[in-house]
Specification:
6 copies of one chain form a homohexamer.
Chain A: H1 4-18, H2 24-29, E1 35-42, E2 46-47, H3 51-56, E3 64-66, E4 74-75, E5 80-87, H4 88-122, E6 127-129, H5 139-148, E7 162-164, H6 166-172, H7 175-185, E8 192-196, H8 199-208, E9 212-216, H9 220-232, E10 240-244, H10 252-257, E11 262-264, H11 267-270, E12 277-282
Parallel strand pairs in A: 6-11, 7-8, 8-9, 9-10, 10-11
Antiparallel strand pairs in A: 1-5, 1-12, 2-4, 3-5
Helix pairs in contact in A: 1-4, 4-5, 7-8, 8-9
Chain lengths: ~280, ~280, ~280, ~280, ~280, ~280
């Protein structure tokens, strides 16, 4: 997506957070022109993500990056992720920021992949999607990691689709009324999705013209009921069915079997497994 | 720590991330002057954190906050965290950013508390500390959540203490040499900590004048050996012993029993339990 | 859309641009505590836009706003847009920035309205839409002004829909191939639009599964041919037809009569009529 | 003026506006390492402006620029403005931002040139000047485009000269009093200009010591009267006479004949002709 | 000049510099809701400057300001500058930033006043002016402090007047050529100043049309010679004579007696006397 | 400490301050592609500081830096600090910002060195330390300059150590109580310093467990008394003794003889001698 130059802004802000007055330890121990080799090594298994976005930035710190693995590659414990060469003061100053990003983002990709593989076995037509439950500040990278893990990025933000949630419905009065309003006022370029809590509401939304229906916090059985009801009304092919709320690696296959198009979960972004990595300098 | 006005900067950036062109759905469904009541409700148990920092900001959006629980209060499923009143366009625009922050930060506090309670039972003198393994961008709030959970904030950044790690030692040549260099060059106001991998290195560091010793990736048995060796050399009271690396809720009591002063773990910041919350509007 | 607090950032940057070292003239002529009344008055006819977003910010400068007209109201030459009261140093410092914004944005709304009214007479089903040809830096406000003028905001940015343009097709090889790739890789939440140059390409795009077809730089006759071809293949109801390129107030009715769903034009954002306004202080 | 590195800041902000989550279409269609050639081509006649400032920035996106025309060169429909080579993801991500800037800024230069040429025929001593009626956010570039078009940049901001306007006079009490105050309090390095509405006020301002007199919203006949009155009082050579307000390409020659030194107009910045351009990739 | 809202940006950045993770000491000692009274007290004599700009910002931190002295008031050791009331965490967090600003800026005003008073005794027509030798980051406030001290602000920046220095002359070839070029190309609104090193060069500059002449690094005798030469050529009333370079409190009267219009010195901004102040809380 | 890339942000902001609309004089006199050689030359004696941080940034402006002296080198009047080559428009645009930084920061280093050398003669065990009395905005560079001058950087900010000052003690109730609170609540990684006003308070602080004691505004005799009292109670080796308040080059040796560990002074940062430099272009 956006190239590293645009992330530079964020990276500098993150670096100032981790080193408002520099890497004090390294600054007092070494001379400015002391160069070192170093490598980033995986300490656990996982799927590497966003490595290009992050390591490209290092050239701005006079750090040369070599033999970098690519986003999407599988890591085993002990794998070299990339080799670096540059001033020890630069390498150690950026170390923690780089590792924190790579570990978390690769964790997002890895966890996404676990969900994707789980559902693939029972229903290859279901996609795993991210939500907007993401720790603020690095959404672009997190969504990219989801994609690398085989997931669907879903809405990037509140600005790129209409999603009528229970709160909207409560204030507008009814699902039908809210969808009709949205269809009248939304741009032709944006889809209209509606959050519903049962099969009957799903039908109401579909009849009112929703493009996507999100069943929130329902049982797999209710998903099935919804799919059946839509088929019955000849609406199944016209609407996309998303399931969300309380999805875990344990129950995701039950939901997948129920026949939705999309299963979205905050597990992959709010509490992903972390892919452990460390940076080692070489004498 | 820093009051909400300083966080405003961050909050606006996070909000732009979640709504670069506004909350499209809400914007097309409601008039500007449509006011609503709403409340934030806990959907799982946990320890509330940083709620003042985050909710104070909402006054900038014409949102009034009432009946807010305080940071440090325990939440049960169904508890009202706070009541809000303001323009529906403001309330729903900030909803996700506010919830993402509260859920993650309360999760950090909750998970810290779990570690703190675990060790308290076996060794009330041990403190649980955070590391710098934190998702970039919100470190100030995360460290604050750790404190709310009863943990020790440790270094805020690379700039507030000397921490000589294995990479530094490798390049300088020996622990002794590195500590001596640091003692000569560091400001009198900053402590000197050294990462070591066994009891003998700990002794070397202590003899060279380290204020704190961090045993990284060692067994509880090695921690004990280190403590004994320091006692033997009459150095135990002069150095603080920290243990780090691979600490989990499962093994933390074993480490606590071994008699260190500090146990630090990235589990509380990189993969905390999440305290689920949602925002509900009232008609 | 986003409330004024989020625009504050932009407004301060714009103000620094117009007054990097303050309003020098006013600073040397008046005392800090000299208050004045003033009003903004329309000097030409037009449709007022974004007045709330802009005037709300003035409270940050101790300027009280009264009797403000609302976005969407028609202005005649001589109409009072709003009355202000505050320190003369504040009022005159923000004057030009406020007027430049109101004049340009109201111009966008006014010009949009002219196109909307022109097509309404010949084809009430056609919508006028904006493009991304907008002077950088104030897109959120410009899109809002388009909406106020009765237009469709279309994509806010490159991130909120798939729009396969001629450049993409040239590099991928064919319209069909590009659409199929996009359908496989794009999120379910985003629509897929394709730019085409003739009726046959439109058919190819529709058959490949495009949601929206944009006829770029074609004659009204070609639009008709396209509509007919889609009807013939039973695809008219499934795809949205947009016309773009070279649309002016003079020829827009010809295009509207040809039966598309959307007519998009950069005229409303790149070279709108300007609604003249001035600020007058009262003794 | 300021070199491209200083604009980088602005450019990144504009790019985030157009691609908060990247160029979604291009990102899903192409691989990261897919390179392309492209060229920017003029689609209408005009005077090219600020091309160096804008295209220099592209090197930050790994885009190589070749065969670029220079600011100040005339463009004909079909002329190649510049050739680019780089990753397709970079080229298409920056496309719209680059074109929007070049089209608008070249439009400013072109429209300025039209006014300059119009007055040159009737009075070669008159200069065309810009005002501060400029869409906020890119004033530095707009003023530069005015200069490229042969215009006078006038005040860059409120901070670089004293300009006593009708609002100031109204509050101070009289033109004479305002000019005297300004002469006493302003720095020696800044000129003092006064806005007046007739020949008599111009005389009052000149006698009080104004360096520049701006006749605002007067007829060409009044300009003549003013010039005559100043000559009569032996003040013509000591004050610069500027005319402003309601100047168009149609009436500018009438004003030029009346003998002012400067004619300023917002037409060249608020509603310039646009120089159409597009970017075409080459297979 | 610019009101406090525009400075808020700067103040927050300065505060983050002094407290990237908050005021740690105060945070651990006190509760959030612990309020205190405090006062700022002068510890040396001086002229107070910019106190409104700085203290106005404190309302953003819930700090109430009372009994504040005004900019331009004389301070004696022990004088109360202002009384504050607010949360102790806010008061002590902003303390150092506020004091550093007030002490330095009041020092600038005080030192300016000393120069102003020194020259007033020997030549009441001479003005003391600031230069651009100012520690980066707070120029707006520094220039304001100069004005409060009775000085002339001179150019705010490189953008608000033409100042042809020796480096320009060296590259253009001659003073005459440089002035003529500038007169042809500069906007009518900006004055043209030329740096010269002797009376003859001053004459050359004046004859070429310079508005201001700056004698740089010359003796008082040379200033006199220059003034005489200009009188002799009937140019004295048409050009402003500035003297700069090596001016101190000791020699400034010698220069003043030589009859220039302006004496500029970096002493008032680069190494002003500091007005000592402290903040005391009241139990 | 932080490499130049992180300072780029600050430098661009400082440059915008000095040239919001570019270097107007140079822009109108020269063509874009006019290159020049130039050199920075010392006009007074001093210790060069931070030259790498500042000059490294110039490559971003196409300015090549050669033969640069290093931070820590002594300058004599007439010494070439560095040679530059690049577009005259870049070189002269950055000139003043670069010189202002180098002159002030080298001044800080030079003044620090003067204090360091003064105390070395009478007591080689005493260190000179900086305080937080620093003009806001460039603290990182100022602290670095202190280090280059041989000084101790002390706390970088409010966030990197506990320093209990008289205001804290007044509100908590007693020194003992404040120190005990801090010991209980502060992280193990941060030292605890206490400001006291006499020997007895120093003893109270030491007994309560303070790591560092700062005698504020006391006589050299009181410092001696304090040292003696601590020796008497066997605490001298366990606490660091800092003296602060009213220290000047004249009295610093008296304080040094009294036997503290640290003497801190704001003289080196708030009113350092300035090392004069200028930039000269070569034809």
């Amino acid at each position: 997506m956006i190239t590293s130059i645009v992330l530079l802004d964020d990276f500098l802000r993150w670096l100032r957070e981790d080193a408002p007055f520099g890497d004090y330890t390294t600054d007092i121990l070494f001379e400015d022109d002391f160069e070192t080799n170093a490598y980033i090594v995986a300490k656990s298994r996982g799927l590497l993500a966003c490595v290009e976005d992050i390591l490209n930035i290092l050239t701005n710190f006079n750090i040369e990056v070599k033999d970098s693995k690519k986003s999407g590659e599988l890591l085993n414990n002990g794998d070299i992720v990339a080799r670096l060469r540059g001033p020890v003061k630069s390498v150690l100053m950026v170390e923690r920021t780089v590792l924190n990003l790579l570990m978390y983002l690769s964790g997002v990709a890895t966890t996404t992949r676990m969900f994707v593989e789980a559902v693939r076995k029972v229903n290859p037509n279901v996609k795993i999607a991210a939500t907007r439950k993401i720790i603020p500040g690095l959404r672009y990278l997190v969504k990219k990691a989801v994609k690398i893990g085989g997931g669907d990025t879903h809405r990037f933000s509140l600005s790129d689709a209409v999603l009528i949630k229970d709160n909207h419905v409560r204030l507008v009065g009814s699902i039908r009324k809210a969808v009709e309003l949205a269809r009248r006022r939304a741009s032709f370029i944006h889809k209209i999705e509606v959050e519903v809590s049962c099969a009957e509401e799903a039908l109401e939304a579909a009849l009112a013209g929703a493009d996507v229906i999100m069943l929130d916090n329902v049982t797999p059985r209710e998903v099935e009921r919804c799919v059946d009801l839509l088929v019955e009304h000849n609406l199944r092919s016209r609407v996309i069915v998303e399931v969300s709320g309380g999805i875990t690696l344990e129950n995701v296959t039950d939901y997948a079997k129920a026949g939705p198009d999309i299963i979205s979960t905050s597990q992959i972004t709010m509490r992903p497994y972390i892919v452990d990595m460390s940076l080692e300098v070489e004498k």
